[in-house]
Protein backbone atom coordinates (compact mmCIF):
# COMPACT_ATOMS: atom_id res chain seq x y z
CA UNK A 1 0.00 0.00 0.00
CA UNK A 2 1.53 3.32 -1.02
CA UNK A 3 1.97 6.30 1.27
CA UNK A 4 -0.82 8.29 -0.37
CA UNK A 5 -3.40 5.57 0.36
CA UNK A 6 -2.14 5.33 3.93
CA UNK A 7 -2.75 9.08 4.28
CA UNK A 8 -6.28 8.73 2.85
CA UNK A 9 -7.08 5.91 5.26
CA UNK A 10 -5.70 7.91 8.19
CA UNK A 11 -7.76 10.97 7.26
CA UNK A 12 -10.85 8.79 6.79
CA UNK A 13 -10.30 7.23 10.21
CA UNK A 14 -10.05 10.68 11.82
CA UNK A 15 -13.32 11.76 10.17
CA UNK A 16 -15.01 8.55 11.36
CA UNK A 17 -13.85 9.14 14.92
CA UNK A 18 -15.00 12.76 14.84
CA UNK A 19 -18.38 11.72 13.42
CA UNK A 20 -18.76 9.13 16.14
CA UNK A 21 -17.93 11.70 18.81
CA UNK A 22 -20.31 14.31 17.41
CA UNK A 23 -23.27 11.98 16.87
CA UNK A 24 -25.60 11.79 19.83
CA UNK A 25 -26.98 8.52 21.23
CA UNK A 26 -30.62 7.59 20.65
CA UNK A 27 -30.90 4.41 22.74
CA UNK A 28 -32.88 6.29 25.40
CA UNK A 29 -34.99 8.36 23.05
CA UNK A 30 -32.80 11.43 22.66
CA UNK A 31 -34.27 13.20 19.66
CA UNK A 32 -32.14 16.27 18.94
CA UNK A 33 -34.49 17.49 16.23
CA UNK A 34 -35.47 20.98 17.29
CA UNK A 35 -32.24 22.92 17.32
CA UNK A 36 -30.78 24.62 20.37
CA UNK A 37 -33.33 26.10 22.79
CA UNK A 38 -32.11 28.95 24.95
CA UNK A 39 -34.84 29.27 27.61
CA UNK A 40 -36.54 26.82 30.01
CA UNK A 41 -39.79 27.36 28.06
CA UNK A 42 -40.28 28.56 24.52
CA UNK A 43 -43.62 29.69 23.06
CA UNK A 44 -44.36 27.80 19.84
CA UNK A 45 -47.25 28.29 17.44
CA UNK A 46 -47.74 24.56 16.99
CA UNK A 47 -45.90 21.69 18.73
CA UNK A 48 -43.66 19.86 16.31
CA UNK A 49 -45.23 16.53 17.25
CA UNK A 50 -46.82 13.65 15.41
CA UNK A 51 -50.01 11.94 16.49
CA UNK A 52 -52.60 12.81 19.09
CA UNK A 53 -52.84 12.04 22.81
CA UNK A 54 -53.75 8.42 23.51
CA UNK A 55 -55.14 9.08 27.00
CA UNK A 56 -57.69 11.91 26.74
CA UNK A 57 -60.13 10.02 29.01
CA UNK A 58 -57.45 9.36 31.64
CA UNK A 59 -56.56 13.06 31.58
CA UNK A 60 -60.23 13.98 32.09
CA UNK A 61 -60.41 11.48 34.98
CA UNK A 62 -57.30 13.02 36.54
CA UNK A 63 -58.84 16.48 36.30
CA UNK A 64 -62.02 15.16 37.96
CA UNK A 65 -59.97 13.65 40.80
CA UNK A 66 -58.30 17.03 41.23
CA UNK A 67 -61.67 18.79 41.33
CA UNK A 68 -62.99 16.60 44.16
CA UNK A 69 -59.78 16.22 46.17
CA UNK A 70 -58.18 19.68 45.90
CA UNK A 71 -60.75 22.33 45.03
CA UNK A 72 -58.30 25.22 45.44
CA UNK A 73 -55.80 23.68 43.06
CA UNK A 74 -58.59 22.87 40.61
CA UNK A 75 -60.03 26.39 40.72
CA UNK A 76 -56.63 27.95 40.03
CA UNK A 77 -56.28 25.81 36.91
CA UNK A 78 -59.92 25.42 35.89
CA UNK A 79 -59.73 27.68 32.82
CA UNK A 80 -56.79 25.71 31.54
CA UNK A 81 -58.32 22.30 32.30
CA UNK A 82 -61.53 23.21 30.46
CA UNK A 83 -59.71 24.51 27.39
CA UNK A 84 -57.57 21.38 27.12
CA UNK A 85 -60.58 19.08 27.57
CA UNK A 86 -62.49 20.91 24.83
CA UNK A 87 -59.49 20.57 22.54
CA UNK A 88 -59.19 16.85 23.34
CA UNK A 89 -62.90 16.21 22.69
CA UNK A 90 -62.59 17.96 19.32
CA UNK A 91 -59.87 15.55 18.18
CA UNK A 92 -56.73 16.87 19.89
CA UNK A 93 -55.05 18.13 16.73
CA UNK A 94 -51.90 19.97 17.81
CA UNK A 95 -52.29 22.30 14.83
CA UNK A 96 -55.55 23.58 16.33
CA UNK A 97 -54.48 24.47 19.87
CA UNK A 98 -54.77 28.20 19.19
CA UNK A 99 -58.39 27.74 18.08
CA UNK A 100 -59.18 26.65 21.66
CA UNK A 101 -57.25 29.50 23.26
CA UNK A 102 -54.29 27.33 24.25
CA UNK A 103 -50.65 28.32 24.05
CA UNK A 104 -47.91 25.67 23.96
CA UNK A 105 -44.51 26.26 25.57
CA UNK A 106 -41.83 23.75 24.65
CA UNK A 107 -39.42 22.78 27.43
CA UNK A 108 -35.74 23.09 26.59
CA UNK A 109 -34.83 19.71 28.09
CA UNK A 110 -31.70 18.68 29.91
CA UNK A 111 -29.46 19.48 26.94
CA UNK A 112 -31.13 22.55 25.36
CA UNK A 113 -32.25 20.39 22.43
CA UNK A 114 -35.71 19.61 23.80
CA UNK A 115 -34.85 16.30 25.46
CA UNK A 116 -36.76 16.14 28.75
CA UNK A 117 -35.89 13.28 31.08
CA UNK A 118 -38.56 10.73 32.00
CA UNK A 119 -38.25 8.27 34.85
CA UNK A 120 -41.05 6.18 36.33
CA UNK A 121 -42.47 5.33 39.72
CA UNK A 122 -45.27 3.07 40.90
CA UNK A 123 -47.12 1.75 43.93
CA UNK A 124 -45.80 -1.64 45.00
CA UNK A 125 -47.85 -4.41 46.59
CA UNK A 126 -45.98 -6.55 49.09
CA UNK A 127 -46.98 -9.63 51.08
CA UNK A 128 -46.70 -9.29 54.85
CA UNK A 129 -48.00 -10.49 58.22
CA UNK A 130 -48.92 -8.68 61.44
CA UNK A 131 -46.32 -10.60 63.45
CA UNK A 132 -43.05 -12.34 62.52
CA UNK A 133 -43.74 -15.90 61.35
CA UNK A 134 -42.03 -18.29 58.98
CA UNK A 135 -40.41 -16.38 56.12
CA UNK A 136 -42.07 -13.11 57.17
CA UNK A 137 -39.28 -11.70 59.32
CA UNK A 138 -38.49 -8.25 57.89
CA UNK A 139 -40.22 -5.41 59.76
CA UNK A 140 -41.73 -2.24 58.34
CA UNK A 141 -41.85 0.55 60.92
CA UNK A 142 -43.96 3.57 61.70
CA UNK A 143 -42.17 6.85 62.45
CA UNK A 144 -40.61 6.79 65.94
CA UNK A 145 -41.18 9.74 68.26
CA UNK A 146 -38.26 12.10 67.97
CA UNK A 147 -37.18 14.06 71.01
CA UNK A 148 -35.49 17.44 70.83
CA UNK A 149 -32.17 17.16 68.95
CA UNK A 150 -32.49 13.38 69.01
CA UNK A 151 -31.15 11.68 65.91
CA UNK A 152 -32.83 8.50 64.73
CA UNK A 153 -30.70 5.42 63.97
CA UNK A 154 -29.37 4.82 60.47
CA UNK A 155 -30.35 1.88 58.27
CA UNK A 156 -27.60 -0.45 59.50
CA UNK A 157 -28.59 0.15 63.12
CA UNK A 158 -32.29 -0.38 62.31
CA UNK A 159 -31.46 -3.65 60.55
CA UNK A 160 -29.46 -4.62 63.65
CA UNK A 161 -32.55 -4.16 65.84
CA UNK A 162 -32.32 -0.58 67.11
CA UNK A 163 -36.11 -0.14 66.93
CA UNK A 164 -37.14 -3.54 68.28
CA UNK A 165 -39.28 -3.69 71.41
CA UNK A 166 -40.75 -0.20 70.91
CA UNK A 167 -44.10 -1.23 69.40
CA UNK A 168 -43.20 0.44 66.09
CA UNK A 169 -43.42 -2.53 63.71
CA UNK A 170 -46.57 -2.38 61.57
CA UNK A 171 -45.91 -5.37 59.31
CA UNK A 172 -43.39 -8.11 58.61
CA UNK A 173 -42.61 -8.93 54.97
CA UNK A 174 -40.75 -11.85 53.43
CA UNK A 175 -38.25 -9.70 51.51
CA UNK A 176 -35.81 -7.09 52.69
CA UNK A 177 -35.46 -5.93 49.07
CA UNK A 178 -39.25 -5.51 48.72
CA UNK A 179 -39.23 -3.32 51.83
CA UNK A 180 -36.41 -1.22 50.39
CA UNK A 181 -38.14 -0.80 47.03
CA UNK A 182 -41.30 0.39 48.79
CA UNK A 183 -39.17 2.93 50.65
CA UNK A 184 -37.81 4.19 47.33
CA UNK A 185 -41.37 4.64 46.00
CA UNK A 186 -42.47 6.33 49.22
CA UNK A 187 -45.66 4.30 49.70
CA UNK A 188 -47.30 1.02 48.81
CA UNK A 189 -50.02 -1.49 49.54
CA UNK A 190 -49.59 -4.34 52.01
CA UNK A 191 -51.48 -7.61 51.69
CA UNK A 192 -51.62 -9.23 55.12
CA UNK A 193 -52.85 -12.49 53.60
CA UNK A 194 -55.95 -12.74 55.78
CA UNK A 195 -58.60 -11.93 53.17
CA UNK A 196 -59.05 -8.32 54.27
CA UNK A 197 -58.65 -5.42 51.83
CA UNK A 198 -55.06 -4.38 51.29
CA UNK A 199 -53.76 -1.66 53.60
CA UNK A 200 -52.20 1.44 52.09
CA UNK A 201 -48.90 2.36 53.69
CA UNK A 202 -48.43 6.07 53.19
CA UNK A 203 -45.20 7.97 53.65
CA UNK A 204 -44.58 8.48 57.37
CA UNK A 205 -41.24 10.26 57.47
CA UNK A 206 -37.47 9.64 57.27
CA UNK A 207 -34.71 9.05 59.78
CA UNK A 208 -32.85 12.18 58.65
CA UNK A 209 -29.73 10.48 57.32
CA UNK A 210 -28.38 11.24 53.84
CA UNK A 211 -29.64 9.20 50.89
CA UNK A 212 -27.06 7.20 48.95
CA UNK A 213 -27.96 5.41 45.72
CA UNK A 214 -27.34 1.66 45.81
CA UNK A 215 -27.57 1.65 42.01
CA UNK A 216 -24.56 3.97 41.84
CA UNK A 217 -22.74 1.77 44.34
CA UNK A 218 -23.28 -1.30 42.14
CA UNK A 219 -22.02 0.66 39.13
CA UNK A 220 -18.96 1.91 41.02
CA UNK A 221 -18.20 -1.64 42.20
CA UNK A 222 -18.42 -2.92 38.63
CA UNK A 223 -21.33 -5.20 39.51
CA UNK A 224 -23.76 -3.66 36.98
CA UNK A 225 -22.90 -1.67 33.85
CA UNK A 226 -24.08 1.93 33.91
CA UNK A 227 -26.12 1.50 30.71
CA UNK A 228 -27.90 -1.55 32.20
CA UNK A 229 -28.85 0.01 35.53
CA UNK A 230 -32.53 -0.25 36.49
CA UNK A 231 -34.67 -1.51 39.38
CA UNK A 232 -34.81 -4.85 37.58
CA UNK A 233 -31.03 -4.96 37.41
CA UNK A 234 -30.84 -4.35 41.17
CA UNK A 235 -33.36 -7.11 41.83
CA UNK A 236 -31.51 -9.49 39.52
CA UNK A 237 -28.26 -8.74 41.35
CA UNK A 238 -29.99 -9.44 44.68
CA UNK A 239 -31.36 -12.78 43.42
CA UNK A 240 -27.80 -13.94 42.68
CA UNK A 241 -26.36 -12.97 46.06
CA UNK A 242 -26.79 -14.07 49.64
CA UNK A 243 -29.02 -12.38 52.19
CA UNK A 244 -25.95 -11.06 53.98
CA UNK A 245 -24.59 -9.52 50.76
CA UNK A 246 -27.95 -7.91 49.96
CA UNK A 247 -28.16 -6.49 53.48
CA UNK A 248 -24.58 -5.16 53.22
CA UNK A 249 -25.48 -3.36 49.99
CA UNK A 250 -28.67 -1.82 51.39
CA UNK A 251 -26.83 -0.66 54.50
CA UNK A 252 -24.67 1.55 52.28
CA UNK A 253 -27.73 3.82 52.10
CA UNK A 254 -28.16 5.13 55.68
CA UNK A 255 -31.49 6.83 54.86
CA UNK A 256 -34.59 4.95 56.02
CA UNK A 257 -38.28 5.61 55.30
CA UNK A 258 -41.11 5.00 57.76
CA UNK A 259 -44.76 4.34 56.89
CA UNK A 260 -48.24 5.16 58.13
CA UNK A 261 -51.06 2.59 57.59
CA UNK A 262 -54.20 4.15 56.09
CA UNK A 263 -57.22 1.85 55.50
CA UNK A 264 -59.09 2.06 52.17
CA UNK A 265 -56.88 4.91 50.91
CA UNK A 266 -56.20 5.57 47.21
CA UNK A 267 -52.71 6.43 46.00
CA UNK A 268 -52.22 10.19 46.33
CA UNK A 269 -49.45 12.53 45.30
CA UNK A 270 -48.04 15.49 47.20
CA UNK A 271 -51.05 17.55 46.08
CA UNK A 272 -53.35 15.15 48.01
CA UNK A 273 -55.00 14.12 44.73
CA UNK A 274 -55.58 10.45 43.81
CA UNK A 275 -53.26 9.62 40.93
CA UNK A 276 -54.31 8.18 37.56
CA UNK A 277 -51.67 5.98 35.96
CA UNK A 278 -49.74 7.63 33.11
CA UNK A 279 -51.83 10.80 33.45
CA UNK A 280 -49.88 12.29 36.37
CA UNK A 281 -46.25 13.14 37.02
CA UNK A 282 -43.96 14.32 39.75
CA UNK A 283 -42.22 17.57 38.86
CA UNK A 284 -39.82 20.15 40.20
CA UNK A 285 -42.34 22.66 41.54
CA UNK A 286 -39.92 25.56 41.27
CA UNK A 287 -40.18 25.08 37.51
CA UNK A 288 -43.48 23.25 36.92
CA UNK A 289 -46.02 23.92 39.71
CA UNK A 290 -48.81 21.60 40.81
CA UNK A 291 -51.79 21.58 38.47
CA UNK A 292 -49.76 22.27 35.32
CA UNK A 293 -51.01 20.46 32.21
CA UNK A 294 -48.36 18.83 30.03
CA UNK A 295 -48.49 17.49 26.50
CA UNK A 296 -45.72 14.90 26.39
CA UNK A 297 -44.15 12.84 23.65
CA UNK A 298 -43.21 9.78 25.72
CA UNK A 299 -40.71 7.18 24.46
CA UNK A 300 -42.13 3.65 24.20
CA UNK A 301 -40.11 0.76 25.62
CA UNK A 302 -40.28 -2.94 24.90
CA UNK A 303 -40.72 -5.60 27.60
CA UNK A 304 -36.97 -5.59 28.23
CA UNK A 305 -36.86 -1.84 28.77
CA UNK A 306 -35.28 -1.01 25.43
CA UNK A 307 -36.36 2.04 23.45
CA UNK A 308 -38.45 0.93 20.46
CA UNK A 309 -37.82 4.06 18.39
CA UNK A 310 -41.47 5.04 18.80
CA UNK A 311 -43.31 7.57 20.95
CA UNK A 312 -46.85 8.23 22.07
CA UNK A 313 -48.48 11.52 22.99
CA UNK A 314 -49.93 11.85 26.49
CA UNK A 315 -51.74 14.54 28.45
CA UNK A 316 -50.60 14.64 32.06
CA UNK A 317 -50.98 16.79 35.17
CA UNK A 318 -48.15 17.65 37.58
CA UNK A 319 -49.45 16.47 40.98
CA UNK A 320 -46.49 15.02 42.84
CA UNK A 321 -42.90 15.77 43.81
CA UNK A 322 -39.74 13.74 44.31
CA UNK A 323 -36.40 14.37 45.95
CA UNK A 324 -34.52 13.45 42.77
CA UNK A 325 -36.88 15.29 40.41
CA UNK A 326 -35.08 18.51 39.55
CA UNK A 327 -35.29 20.81 36.54
CA UNK A 328 -36.26 19.37 33.16
CA UNK A 329 -37.17 15.96 34.54
CA UNK A 330 -40.50 14.26 35.21
CA UNK A 331 -41.29 11.08 37.13
CA UNK A 332 -44.30 9.46 35.45
CA UNK A 333 -46.69 7.51 37.68
CA UNK A 334 -47.14 4.01 36.23
CA UNK A 335 -49.83 2.55 38.50
CA UNK A 336 -50.13 -0.24 41.08
CA UNK A 337 -48.51 -3.65 41.27
CA UNK A 338 -45.88 -5.77 39.55
CA UNK A 339 -46.66 -4.82 35.95
CA UNK A 340 -46.47 -1.12 36.77
CA UNK A 341 -43.27 -1.75 38.68
CA UNK A 342 -41.78 -3.55 35.70
CA UNK A 343 -42.44 -0.51 33.49
CA UNK A 344 -41.33 2.03 36.09
CA UNK A 345 -38.09 0.18 36.78
CA UNK A 346 -36.82 0.59 33.24
CA UNK A 347 -37.71 4.23 32.58
CA UNK A 348 -34.78 6.59 32.34
CA UNK A 349 -35.40 7.94 28.86
CA UNK A 350 -36.08 11.19 27.03
CA UNK A 351 -39.04 12.72 25.26
CA UNK A 352 -40.37 16.16 24.44
CA UNK A 353 -42.77 18.16 26.59
CA UNK A 354 -44.96 21.19 26.01
CA UNK A 355 -46.69 23.07 28.83
CA UNK A 356 -50.24 23.90 27.74
CA UNK A 357 -51.67 27.13 29.04
CA UNK A 358 -54.93 28.92 28.32
CA UNK A 359 -54.47 32.27 26.61
CA UNK A 360 -57.08 33.65 29.03
CA UNK A 361 -54.35 33.62 31.67
CA UNK A 362 -52.76 36.63 29.97
CA UNK A 363 -49.92 34.80 28.26
CA UNK A 364 -48.15 34.06 31.55
CA UNK A 365 -47.38 30.51 32.61
CA UNK A 366 -47.19 31.10 36.35
CA UNK A 367 -46.95 33.91 38.89
CA UNK A 368 -44.15 34.42 41.35
CA UNK A 369 -41.00 36.41 41.88
CA UNK A 370 -38.69 35.02 39.20
CA UNK A 371 -39.11 35.97 35.55
CA UNK A 372 -37.68 34.57 32.34
CA UNK A 373 -38.45 35.58 28.77
CA UNK A 374 -38.95 32.51 26.51
CA UNK A 375 -39.09 33.55 22.89
CA UNK A 376 -41.99 35.93 22.36
CA UNK A 377 -43.42 36.30 25.85
CA UNK A 378 -42.42 37.05 29.39
CA UNK A 379 -43.00 34.13 31.71
CA UNK A 380 -43.01 34.16 35.49
CA UNK A 381 -42.24 31.10 37.57
CA UNK A 382 -43.68 30.13 40.90
CA UNK A 383 -41.29 29.31 43.72
Structure description:
This protein has 383 residues and is of the alpha+beta class. It has two domains: 41-121 and 269-381, RlpA-like domain (Barwin-like endoglucanases); 123-263, Ribosomal Protein L25, Chain P (Beta Barrel). It has nine helices and 16 strands. It has helices spanning 3-22, 56-69, 71-89, 155-159, 176-185, 214-220, 231-239, 243-250, 338-346; strands spanning 41-44, 102-107, 116-123, 125-129, 138-141, 169-173, 188-191, 199-206, 257-263, 280-282, 293-301, 307-320, 329-336, 348-358, 370-372, 379-381. Strands 3-13-10-12-11-14 form a six-stranded mixed barrel. A six-stranded mixed sheet has the order 5-6-4-7-8-9, covered by helices on one side. Helix 2 packs antiparallel against helix 3 (71-89). It is globular, with a radius of gyration of 24 Å.
In short:
The protein is of the alpha+beta class and 383 residues long. It has helices at 3-22, 56-69, 71-89, 155-159, 176-185, 214-220, 231-239, 243-250, 338-346; strands at residues 41-44, 102-107, 116-123, 125-129, 138-141, 169-173, 188-191, 199-206, 257-263, 280-282, 293-301, 307-320, 329-336, 348-358, 370-372, 379-381.
